[in-house]
Amino acid sequence: MTRKLKVLLVDDHPMVREWLTSLIEQQPDMSVCGEADNIADAVKVFKTVTPDIAVVDLSLKEASGLELVKTIKSRWPTVGIVVLSMHEEEIYAERAIRAGARGYVMKRESTKRIITAIRDVHQGKLCVSDQISTAFAEKFVGGRATPLSGVQELSDRELEVFDLLGRGLGTRQIAETLNVSIKTVQAYCARIKQKMHLSTASELLREAVRWHDRQMEGSGAA
After folding, report:
1. Distance between CA atoms of residues 123 and 115, nearest Å
2. Residue pLDDT, tens place only, 142-160
3. How many whole angstroms separate alpha carbon 180 and alpha carbon 178?
4. Edge-to-edge strand ranges of the sheet holding 5-10
5. Residues 6+ apart with CB under 8 A from 123
6. Which of 91, 108, 140 is the endpoint of a domain?
7. Domain match, 156 and 176 both
8. 17 and 116 belong to one structural domain
């Protein structure tokens, strides 16, 4: 009997995990070996069972899912990682792949696409949309890459701070969430303003909220 793929689900929404569990358990070659809604709990699962595939959301309770992707890649390099997110591919797909993921799927895509991504990544394939695949080819095979601007120019950590601002967190809350000092958060905010050509903290907050709202609008039913 062929061994089933062990899949770990990491998402901070119980309904999404329930939906994914139902979807995966219907497949004859897959089973869910664990669930988590934050990085610490995900690492605990890894200490008891090593999954074949980790399906990771980018918006977790305490930190960006990108940090978990980097942790998995560093500590369990044989595990395939599929990022399942509501966030725009243009902003996050390359970051996720660079961090160690092999697949990036939008939550609004079909269930068939999600299952295909899990199987493809387990087979060592890269699973992204045609648009992102073309962008990768242009950037890494000698073509012209689209110049970075605005949010795309932010580092992973700067983007995480920007996202937390958009969620309504203040400087102190962000510092506690990321386990850094308030001065460090202020330094990130200063760099974000510079890169996005914003003059004041109020402009930064307004742009962060607008951006976060657009992400939520694009998340679909999931």
Report:
1. 13
2. 555 544 457 888 888 999 8
3. 6
4. 30-36, 5-10, 53-56, 80-85, 103-106
5. none
6. 140
7. yes
8. yes
Q: Is the pLDDT of residue 1 over 90?
A: no
Dist CA 217 CA 215 (whole Å): 5
CA distances to 89, 126, 141, 149 from 135, rounded to whole Å, are: 11, 14, 10, 15
- Chain center to CA of 66: 5
Last residue of a domain, one of 140, 171, 189: 140
Same domain, 17 and 87: yes
3-state secondary structure of 185: helix
Q: How far is CA 121 from each of CA 10, 49, 92, rounded to the nearest angstrom?
A: 17, 19, 18
- Residues β-bridged to residue 5: 30
CATH of the domain at 186: 1.10.10.10
The string of pLDDT tens digits covering residues 28-50 is 999 999 999 989 999 999 999 99
Same domain, 115 and 17: yes
Which run of H or of E encompasses 133? helix 130-140
Range of the domain at 175: 150-217
